[in-house]
Amino acid sequence: MGKRKIKVLSAISLGIILSISCSKLLPQLPTDDSILDGPVDGLSPEQNRIFLRGDFAFNDEVFTSSNGLGPTFVATSCGSCHAGDGKGHPFTTLTRFGQSDTLGNQFLHLGGPQLQSRALPGYKPEVLPAGATFSRFTPPANTGLGLLEAVPDATLIALSDVNDADGDGISGRPNWITLPSYTIIKTGAIHNNGKYIGRFGKKALVYDLLQQTANAYNQDMGINSSYESISTYNNLQVDPEIPNQTILDVVFYLQTLKAPVQRDQQDREVLAGKQLFIQISCSKCHIPQLQTGPSPIAAISNKTIFPYTDLLLHDMGPALDDGYTEGTALTPEWRTPALWGLGLSKNSQGGQVFLMHDGRARSITEAINLHGGEANNSRKLFQQLTESDKNKLIKFLESL
Amino acid sequence: MMKICLSILFIFTSFIVQGQIDPELLRNFSIDTTERKLNMDAVYNRPFIQAGKLPVALGGYVEANYQYLNENGISKGHEFQMRRLTLFVSSTVSKRIKFLTELEFEEGTKEINIEFASVDFEFEPLLNFRGGIVMNPIGAFNQNHDGPKWDFVDRPLAATQMLPATWSNVGFGIFGKKSKHNWTYGYELYLTNGFNESIVSNSMNKTFLPASKSDPDRFGQSVNGMPLFTAKFALRNTKLGEVGISYMSGIYNQFEKDGLVLDKKRAVTAYAIDFNTTIAKTGTFINGEWAWIKIDVPDTYTEQFGRNQTGGFIDIVQPIIRKPLFGFTNSVLNAALRLEYVDWNKGKFVSTGENISDHIYSVVPSLSWRPSTQTVFRLNYRYNWQTDLLGNPPSRMAGFQFGFSTYL
């Protein structure tokens, strides 16, 4: 073999070796605090397998006419509404309608409570019935939901202050809801005349992640299951279009998604912003720290979490009163949304933010300024802060 | 399908056995497949082997590779892939009647397709009839896709993930070609079966024309009885290169059944322009294609499925060493670069009035070594930036691919 051939062979071999070993040419794993998806620490290999099945069903399974989509629907997959497990975009913001008081939804026979605003080709989507009050709901982030589910009812009762006994103007209360028949009532659950505490959804109408999941398949995608078997298209009972196992895998996936990791925790301005957050009483509803109770999933059992919510209903004032409600909530009442992951919202909302229940706030500052009712005092205090202090508070919120 | 496979394998094996008895009987029509003819000539611009005076000739090519890809910091590890094995059989039925078929096995036997199986009748050079399974001449890659002709492991994204290459259907049409001085022009006009509703109802969650290829009935029936029309005109100058303009349009949905109306007729239309040239001074070969697709999607259906798509690629291949190597007298080492872009959903959100994303950019530098004109070894580095519908931070995928492709 000639010298030239050896050189060429060596150069090619070296090129291949260098190429393969050069990790800088390959994308790096994003830091844990820069993304919302991923499991909680401590899952067993068996649980990892279930998580992966749920991850596939949630993010990769697409519904079409051939596997049950619609005929009327809002989205074609779970992931369409929750990119990267984060908050949704106006593209998939859904419309709920038909209930204006605590007496129940008067438009169930006309397609309530949710508008299936899209339809398969050849079908017509639903239209909002005349006279129906409505509200638009932006899909929330999924992260940490299992941890929120594991917070004991007793904690929520302890945080509630229905009659504002402490006189601080804040009177959080649970939404007492009637459970669907398939619900497995949690150990330690507290009931009130046969009703239980709802903790998910904008109006806290949902008891647990099984109800949330089965309901979303049904209402958002038109996928019937043995849990939710009434078709949104014709209000008739139909065969399941998805196995129970898939629903349960998705529930497990949602239960074991990690909590968002706060960034810049030791930054001086972030720390100062957190103090301001507490000083102006934002933290009275957006409770910084909660403790989960016992859970069948060890990885989320008895954990200290930092969700910035009390999972209770609060009167948010007339500006946020759409005239629509669910369960026993009043129309101006909204469940306190968790603030963890707020700073990463733009990564799932197309580089922008669409905040509050319907995405009307295009910045954190605007969202704060929309707070009224029980949050009126905190909003005023925020508005009285210096620009520097406002920036610190915003920086803190963006770190979550 | 199994019968066809077995028959072709039997014929192929028969010739190999004959060859073992007397190799002199085999005539090898080795041609320079890197020679630049019109893209429409590609189906016959291949090396064939023929036994004795039999009117049947055989050919084929194989592609295999190794790859190590990483998406957002997570890799599937080392992968070895047998991308495809393609067998050709051509036959000269008479002086002006020819038959050619192309059978492709992708990823082992995961996909077995008859990509081409047509009879050509030549009335005169400008008027030929072609019938059978024909390749719809949309763009250039769909016509001219043999692995050994390309310096990259992957096929172009715009050709395979937006346009449905390789896209062939049952139908017939006419084609012709004429040369004068340095100029050659050709045309093709076909009516074939077409797309189906899976292009806007598929597991890709996007308007995806290649989804139609998974319909097992498409070579036996049309979903709606409406033909897909495909037309192409190409012009080549021996010094300047070739430009092709192509058009494809048809109804994709089942708008009625048993006389009952199910929907309005919904059309899919594609336009493409392709070009290739070799810069004489440097030997640089440039090959590109760009396509636009318009799909009639109901306003009441989700915006997840795009109404307009666009995308294309450009390959630049620069020979850097033309010297005999390892006894291969025609050895050429090339440096190459592919730039690609596909936008699967060109439009604006109704809710915000802002642009819908759902696009990908890709850069693929390559080193390719051609020991002969019919064989290529390729070392590629690929970097993709893919943005979802909403325009969130892109998913990044990069990695290395090494493989070969050779005519048989």
Automatic annotation (TrEMBL), chain A:
InterPro entries: Cyt_c-like_dom (IPR009056), Cyt_c-like_dom_sf (IPR036909), Cytochrome_c_Peroxidase/MauG (IPR051395), DHOR (IPR010538). Residues 54-258, 268-400 form the Cytochrome c domain. Keywords: Heme, Iron, Metal-binding. Gene3D superfamilies: Cytochrome c-like domain. Pfam families: DHOR (PF06537). Transmembrane segments: none annotated. GO terms for molecular function: cytochrome-c peroxidase activity; electron transfer activity; heme binding; metal ion binding. The keyword Heme applies. This is CxxC motif-containing protein, DUF1111 family. It comes from Sediminibacterium ginsengisoli.
From TrEMBL, chain B:
SUPFAM superfamilies: Porins (SSF56935). InterPro entries: Porin_dom_sf (IPR023614). This is Phosphate-selective porin O and P. It comes from Sediminibacterium ginsengisoli.
